[in-house]
């Protein structure tokens, strides 16, 4: 599903280049559920953004679904992103003036899906995440856990192959965080979508079938059990 070979990312500092990711080599199989863990500044978000085609590596190769994607044009990256990848962030990123279903429908709108079909698909996905009775609410009328469910529905409505989540439970209390985690695990099992989730929560990470540990831009270890 996903393969990185010797992927590095450098940022220019006044006197030298700083390696934020240093020769990362990693494979993730289709349908896996992985926690990406590591201290603050270890490169987790940078790695997720490279995998999600939001950023480009300084060197190395990245394959998604057998396609070498690191050298794609911005236009081609955007097309692949819309088709293959869903994102969830800590701060939800819902558009405040759109209702829950209109937020969920956005990826379908970008694809040119007719409005009736957008609405039907968005409402079905909201029902799947337990929000059948909140489809007409605005983000300001939803709790944190509900907002994150809307964001998850938006990430999955276009049937992506890969779901990337950067601290999706970081703004939630621990009981709501566990509910959201259980929802992600259920969607991974039912839809077969591959999930890579950054988390600082050791308990949540340990409940994932696989953990990938980063430190100083390098993969320290990868496997099941706590890294
Ligand atoms: N645009 C940038 N220019 C320069 N340095 C950057 C840039 N973006 C990130 N960095 C540096 O890269 C390193 C890794 O950042 P990253 O955001 O990937 O860490 P993280 O593991 O996600 O941390 P956190 O757990 O705090 O979210 C940090 O030292 C950061 O300062
Ligand atoms: Mg981060």
UniProtKB/TrEMBL annotation:
Record-level Gene Ontology MF annotations: ATP binding; ATP hydrolysis activity; transmembrane transporter activity
InterPro entries the UniProt entry points to = AAA+_ATPase, ABC_transporter-like_ATP-bd, ABC_transporter-like_CS, ABC_transpr_LolD-like, MacB-like_ATP-bd, P-loop_NTPase
ABC transporter domain segment(s): 2-226
Repressor as a keyword?
no
| Alphabetic keyword roster | ATP-binding, Cell inner membrane, Cell membrane, Membrane, Nucleotide-binding, Transport
A Gene Ontology cellular-component term: membrane protein complex
Keyword Disulfide bond set for record: no
What family does the database annotate?
A: Belongs to the ABC transporter superfamily. Macrolide exporter (TC 3.A.1.122) family.
Record protein name field: ABC transporter ATP-binding protein
The record lists the organism as Sphingomonas gei
Q: What is the lineage of its organism?
A: Bacteria, Pseudomonadati, Pseudomonadota, Alphaproteobacteria, Sphingomonadales
